[in-house]
Amino acid sequence: MKHVSILLLDHVNIGSMENARLGLLEANTFQKLNGMEDYFKVELVGIRPEVNLYNGAFTIRADKTLDQVSNTDLIIIPPVQQDLASGIQDNEAFCPWIKEQYEKGTEIASLCLGAFILGNTGLLNGRKCVTHWKATGQFKRLFPDTQLLPDKLLTDDAGIYTGGGAFSSANLILYVIEKYLSREAAIYCSKIFQIDMGRNAQSEFIIFTGQKDHSDDQVKTVQEYVERNFPEKFSVEFLCEKFFLSRRTLERRFKYATGNTLLEYLQRVRVEAAKRNLEKTNKTVSEIMYDVGYSDSKSFREVFKKYSGLSPLEYKSKYGLN
Q: What region holds the HTH araC/xylS-type domain (predicted)?
């Protein structure tokens, strides 16, 4: 039997915590249906015996506190439901225990914004990881030594697993069930909870809003120009002349401030506009392609799939008007 410690964080996201707990317990149900014993012993482990949430509306009691767990096989870190800086600070006491357990051979899985708690331990330095796409900018600033893969749905690196968004973290739980127990158990759980096991990316869910949480005002001016004029045909050289910067300087400053090259930024702005049109209008893919500044259908399809994970037709079929 594998002992699993789900951390009862201060200000924990109850939904994600319960997704993990119920998923593992359902794997035990699979075992029983097949005449076998439970495989996972699942416990909520906290700093204190209980946590109050939503101004006392909910009280969750821990099965054990940290000092009562000397060894565990898997630690699951759910996300916090509050400001991330405060969430990291309020849950600081978990970090030494997580590191100590990992050094003993314990594996660790973070769900969604739980990656911020895990990142604070230093165990993600140099390792591949994911978190919710909306928090990637803040994660990169706080933990620059990690190999953040914002488009991926989950990662598996040296006994450390990370998963994307709060509800899509259920895919990480299925992955853990398959790795620890069996694929048959994971398929059973996916059917019970109606979760698509085939997903491996969060690209199609990303809403690109432009990375403007930086202090380079001239780069912001360039960004705003691109966002207003993306349907037009203009080159990097044109932007350099317009804003009185050399190409090398503009490319360097733009990449440093936004994390994208100028070309990547223009592509992402155009793809986001195309996605909105595919969702909200009855225009054809070709009409939308021209509206957002493309004239070559092959190039448009390739760029669209690069940033959304789907072809324009697949995206329209999935998210467009019926």
A: 220-318
Determine the Cα angle at 132 with ends 145 and 129, to 5°.
Answer: 35
pTM of the model: 0.72
Q: What is the DSSP string of 260-309?
A: S-HHHHHHHHHHHHHHHHHHH----HHHHHHHTT---HHHHHHHHHHHHS
Q: 217-319 sits in which CATH class?
A: mainly alpha
C-alpha dihedral, 46 to 51 to 53 to 57, nearest 10°: 140
Q: Which amino acid is at 10?
A: D
pLDDT given at position 204: 54
Pick 2-205's CATH classification: 3.40.640.10, 3.40.50.880, 3.90.76.10, 3.90.1720.10: 3.40.50.880
Q: Strands 107-111 and 74-77: what pairing? A: parallel
Alpha-carbon span 141 to 56, nearest angstrom: 33
Q: What is the pLDDT of residue 109?
A: 96
Tell me the two tokens of residue 149: 């893969």
Q: Is pLDDT above 60 for 205? A: no
What does the domain layout of the chain look like in residue ranges? 2-205, 217-319
134-149 pLDDT, tens digit per residue, is 888 889 889 999 999 8
Beta carbons of 268 and 208 less than 8 angstroms apart: yes
CA distance 184 to 190: 10
Which tens digit of pLDDT belongs to each residue from 113-133?
Answer: 999 999 999 999 999 999 988
Task: Enumerate the H helices of 39-161 as residue ranges.
Answer: 84-90, 94-103, 114-119, 136-142
Residue from 251, 289, 242, 295 nearest 270 by CA: 289
Contacts 24+ apart (CB under 8 A), 248-254: 250/222, 253/216, 253/218, 253/219, 254/219, 254/222
Residue 319 reports pLDDT greater than 80: yes
Instruction: State pLDDT tens for residues 21-79.
Output: 999 999 999 999 999 999 999 999 999 999 988 777 889 999 999 999 999 999 999 99
